[in-house]
Design goal:
- It is built from ten helices and eleven strands.
- By secondary structure, it is of the alpha/beta class.
- The protein folds into two domains: about 110 residues, CBS-domain; about 110 residues, CBS-domain.
- The strands form four sheets. The protein has a three-stranded mixed β-sheet.
- Helix 4 packs across helix 10, helix 5 crosses helix 9 and helix 5 crosses helix 10.
- The radius of gyration is 18 Å and the shape is flat.
- It starts with a helix and ends with a helix.
Length: about 240
């Protein structure tokens, strides 16, 4: 399958002077995680990491390193580029003209894992964990330090919820102060899980089916780690 077969041609753009909080509103309304801004791109993670400056123009935090793939490239090549560059999306075009965009989520949805392997072989053994009473600003600070998008909210040693940058973008869009907000009020409480013995393909299929990009890895008693789109795409690029 080729990039052009699954890319989105509806590339949402924003004026470079758009405020961070307004960019969050645009992303949430359109159910996307990135905006093309002038000659750059800004992600929902960029917005959340800079929550303390909600009126800052997004141009000031956008990345100018636009990475393109050719529409005729196959999906495995796109997986390789995403993994090698450590990005969550690729623009489709000739390096100047944008024909579309392809994201991690698109690749997870359409690429199957064809090699043997279990989640335990690739999981992150140090996911961000927090309590339901942790404040959003505390969690964002750890996310920035580790350059991650998710935190596992622990209750009785097991995942009681997942807090993503998308969850945090909701109060950001309304201009609320993250220091006054707790994880339990914004986390996603429907938590899908895998075990270390689950196959990597099982994790990929679950992400694709539920339209999620992160899964806690557990046994019957505790959280053992996590697996995200990034780890699975590294496998798909082999």
């Amino acid at each position: 399958m080729k990039v052009k077969e699954i890319m989105s041609t509806n590339v949402i753009k924003a004026d470079p002077n758009t405020k961070i909080k307004d960019a969050a509103k645009i992303m949430l309304y359109n159910n996307i995680r990135r905006l093309v801004v002038g000659d750059g791109i800004v992600t929902i993670r960029d917005l959340v990491y800079n929550w303390q400056n909600p009126d800052m123009p997004v141009e000031e935090i956008s990345s100018k390193d636009l990475i393109f793939v050719n529409p005729e490239d196959d999906l495995k090549e796109a997986c390789k580029v995403v993994t090698a560059k450590g990005v969550g999306s690729l623009l489709v075009g000739d390096g100047t003209n944008i024909q579309g965009i392809i994201t991690e989520r698109d690749l997870i949805r359409y690429c199957k894992v064809n090699i043997n392997g279990n989640v335990g072989d690739i999981m992150d053994i140090s996911p961000i964990i927090a309590s339901p009473d942790s404040t959003l600003d505390e969690i964002i600070e750890v996310m920035k330090q580790k350059f991650k998008r998710h935190a596992v909210i622990i209750k009785d040693n097991l995942p009681g919820g997942i807090l993503s940058v998308r969850d945090i973008a909701r109060p950001l869009a309304s201009g609320r102060n993250m220091k006054n907000l707790q994880a339990k009020d914004f986390m996603t409480i429907e938590v899908y899980r895998v075990t270390p013995d689950s196959t990597i393909e099982t994790a990929r299929f679950l992400m694709a089916e539920k339209n999620i990009g992160f899964l806690p890895v557990v046994d019957s008693r505790s959280l053992l780690g996590s697996v995200s789109e990034r780890e699975i795409l590294a496998v798909l690029s082999i």
